[in-house]
Amino acid sequence: MKVRLLDIAHARSGDKGDTANVGVIALEPEWYPVIERYLTLDRVTEHFRGVITGPIERYELPNLRALNFLLHGALDGGGTLSLKTDAQGKVFSTAMLRMVLDVPDDEAKAANLPGTADGHRIGARLHFGTKEQS
Questions:
Q1: Which residues neighbour 12 within 8 Å (Cβ) at sequence distance 6 or greater?
Q2: What is the pLDDT of residues 16-25, one digit of tens each?
């Protein structure tokens, strides 16, 4: 099953020098293992190929149900040196959420991912700690 990362996670990004930092946080506790398994270092590296010049590091934060990625060489020297429109790396979170993960159907159903028969409706969002349906 194809699962848009946007439907199962939210993300935040920022910068430190020439490195963009992207945190990806599961919207539901049961979705974190799916993100942990399928949002791999190789997938993220391929997704940002040609956009960044350095290596990517991945850190797992299971207590927060999150992954953190450091994208080295992403900001053309950093905020004070770069001529890039987004020298602080704010768009990297949006770019990350555009990824589509390939999740086996049985695993997607077991995690109640959006689009499965028992899963949450696509477009579910968290709002101030309570789920709203959009």
A1: 22, 23, 25, 93
A2: 777 889 999 9
Residue of 6 and 76 predicted with greater confidence: 6
Q: What is the CB-side half-sphere exposure of residue 89 using CA atoms within 13 A?
A: 29
Residue 91: what pLDDT? 82
Residue 5 buriedness (CB in 10 A; 0-12 / 13-18 / 19+): buried
pTM above 0.85, yes or no: no
119-126 long-range contacts (CB < 8 A, ≥24 apart) are 120/28, 122/7, 123/7, 124/7, 124/27, 125/27, 126/10, 126/27
